[in-house]
Specification:
Blueprint: H1 2-28, E1 32-46, E2 49-58, E3 62-75, E4 83-93, E5 98-111, E6 114-126, E7 134-144, E8 149-159
Antiparallel strand pairs: 1-2, 1-8, 2-3, 3-4, 4-5, 5-6, 6-7, 7-8
Length: about 160
C-alpha cells in the first residue's frame, strides 16, 4: 500500500516542479522597461564609419561600458546633411553580461562636424543573463566629430 502511494506522490511532485519551472521561465520573459545613457569617444575610421567607446548606466545592469560602430548607409533628404545609418552597440555590465543592440537611424547635421541621430533599436545578441534577450525601443544620440565625443540615450523594453 505504501508503494502505491509513493508513485502518485512522486508524479505529483515532479509535475509541480515542471510547472513551477515553466512559470518562472515565462515570468522572466515578460518585457520590462529599459533605459541606458552612455557617452565617450567617437572616432571616424573611414568616410562612412565611426567607432564609439564609452561608459554610462543602464537598467538591469547599473554601470556599463560600451563599444559601438556606425556605418552610414546612404543619404536622407528629410533634414540638413541627412544620412541613414546602422549603429551597433554592445553594452557590458561590470560582471561581464552584455547586450548588443542595433539601431537604424536618420542622422542630421546640426553644426560643423556635429550630428543628431534618432531611430529605432532592437536587441540582436546577448551573453550571461541577456543570452536570449529580446527587446526594442527608441534611439537618440549626438556626436561631435570635431571634438570626437558622443552621447547616446536608449529607451524601450527588454525581456530576458
Amino acid at each position: 500500500m505504501t508503494r502505491r502511494l509513493r508513485l502518485p506522490a512522486v508524479a505529483l511532485i515532479a509535475g509541480a516542479a515542471v510547472m513551477l519551472g515553466a512559470s518562472s521561465v515565462l515570468a522572466a520573459c515578460h518585457p520590462v522597461p529599459f533605459k541606458a545613457t552612455f557617452s565617450g569617444s567617437a572616432v571616424p575610421t573611414s568616410p562612412t564609419t565611426i567607432s564609439f567607446a564609452g561608459t554610462g548606466t543602464a537598467s538591469h545592469t547599473g554601470r556599463i561600458t560600451n563599444v559601438g560602430n556606425v556605418t552610414v548607409t546612404g543619404p536622407d533628404g528629410s533634414c540638413n546633411g541627412g544620412v541613414t545609418a546602422v549603429n551597433t552597440e554592445t553594452l557590458t555590465a561590470a560582471n561581464g553580461d552584455a547586450i548588443t543592440i542595433q539601431s537604424h537611424d536618420v542622422t542630421c547635421l546640426t553644426g560643423p562636424n556635429q550630428y543628431h541621430g534618432t531611430g529605432h533599436w532592437t536587441v540582436t545578441d546577448g551573453t550571461g543573463r541577456f543570452r536570449h534577450a529580446t527587446g526594442e525601443g527608441s534611439f537618440d544620440g549626438i556626436a561631435d566629430l570635431g571634438a570626437q565625443t558622443f552621447t547616446i540615450a536608449l529607451d524601450g523594453s527588454i525581456a530576458y
